[in-house]
């Protein structure tokens, strides 16, 4: 099977008021993959997406779409929290209105079925819940039957079941050959559902690869347990970081588990509730970027 390259970003740069937001960005997106783009607030994610969608010019570099310089709008869909919706019209009218923009749109019933809006076709957009509006935005993004869909915070306002159903649908469409680019503050969703990660930091792509490759490059493990052991014994362990002690709950990360295992074996009778796990995308992202804002300690 020949894999088609849908989008190529080649040495793109962008500055605002003398500040370089994007320094030298290069990557490509192929048919049938889900790519998550993550970065700190202000890292340039929105700027990059606008440049890709030709809503903003790049200062340098070039972008090609199926090998061409000109974008075919029907081939690119955008699901955004700022997606255009008209509050006073019904769901059916909004979808049909959007279909008129395309010469070969997806069939109305297919769009309604894909977005799970069968029961809301006669409901005014203004009466939809947040999650239902997100479903409508997804239907509008699919209307032109695009090959690449941009998803900006796609599951905001959805409940747990709706989120799971949404990502199952995205994976089904991916398996049919569609590609997706995700920007999302829910890093766990990107970790769970993206095939590939792009980590944007200080105007550069610091990482481009799979979650498994990211873990292999930044090999750390999170260890937690309950113990009355003195903090000094823990601080003497080589290769540990991010040590947190809350009462008797102890958590740290380790880049070499051999001394940790020896420590656990030595003090096993003083350790309870031991948990050892690979680091999450959020933890690795914080380690790479120093962005403590991404952590949430209640």
TrEMBL record:
Membrane-spanning residues:
none
- Gene Ontology MF annotations: ATP binding; ATP hydrolysis activity
Entries under Pfam families matching the protein: ABC_tran
All residue ranges annotated as the ABC transporter domain in the record: 7-227
Question: Record's InterPro entries?
Answer: AAA+_ATPase, ABC_transporter-like_ATP-bd, ABC_transporter-like_CS, ABC_transporter_ATP-binding, P-loop_NTPase
Chloroplast among keywords: no
Show the SMART domains listed in the entry: AAA
Q: Which UniProt keywords apply?
A: ATP-binding, Nucleotide-binding, Transport
Supply the name of the protein. Answer: ABC transporter, ATP-binding protein
Higher taxonomy: Bacteria, Bacillati, Bacillota, Bacilli, Lactobacillales
């Amino acid at each position: 099977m020949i894999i088609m390259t849908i989008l190529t970003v080649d040495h793109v740069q962008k500055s605002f008021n003398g500040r370089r937001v994007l320094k030298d960005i290069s990557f490509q997106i192929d048919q049938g993959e889900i790519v998550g783009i993550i970065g700190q607030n202000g890292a340039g994610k929105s700027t990059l997406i606008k440049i890709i969608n030709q809503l903003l010019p790049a200062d340098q570099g070039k972008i090609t779409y199926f090998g061409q310089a000109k974008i075919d709008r029907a081939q690119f869909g955008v699901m955004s929290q700022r997606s255009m919706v008209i509050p006073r019209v019904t769901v059916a009218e909004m979808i049909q209105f959007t279909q008129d923009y395309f010469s070969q749109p997806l069939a109305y019933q297919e769009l309604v079925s894909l977005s799970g809006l069968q029961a809301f076709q006669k409901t005014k957009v203004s009466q939809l819940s947040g999650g239902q509006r997100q479903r409508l935005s997804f239907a509008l993004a699919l209307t032109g039957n695009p090959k690449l869909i941009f998803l900006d915070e796609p599951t905001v306002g959805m409940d747990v079941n709706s989120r799971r159903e949404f990502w199952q649908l995205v994976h089904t469409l991916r398996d049919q050959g569609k590609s997706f680019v995700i920007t999302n503050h829910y890093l766990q969703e990107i970790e769970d559902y993206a095939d590939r990660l792009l980590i944007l930091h200080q105007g550069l792509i610091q990482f481009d690869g799979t979650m498994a490759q990211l873990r292999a490059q930044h090999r750390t493990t999170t260890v937690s347990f309950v113990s009355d052991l003195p903090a000094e014994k823990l601080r003497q362990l080589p290769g540990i970081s991010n040590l947190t002690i809350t009462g008797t709950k102890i958590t740290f990360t380790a880049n070499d588990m051999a001394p940790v295992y020896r420590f656990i074996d030595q003090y096993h009778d003083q350790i309870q509730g031991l948990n050892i796990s690979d680091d999450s995308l959020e933890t690795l992202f914080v380690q790479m970027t120093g962005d403590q804002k991404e952590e949430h300690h209640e």
